[in-house]
Amino acid sequence: MDKVTCIAFLLYESSNSQDIKEKAIQLLNGDVSLRELKKNAQVQHYLVIVESLLKKNKIDKIQVQRFAEEFMVLEV
Fold this sequence. Notes:
5 helices, 74% helix
């Protein structure tokens, strides 16, 4: 899994807020960039936590794959 997909998954899982979950899905689908999210004060706190978890390699690749399969929009 690539870094952005992992960050999107961790961001989605880190909050019960529907807005944060939507931002994570937007990140996964490329509708918003990581740089744009870092400028968003509401999301910034979660991103710090998520990036530290990613550095510690505390992530289940199978769950990330399921998240991507469920929420990634494929355009044909």
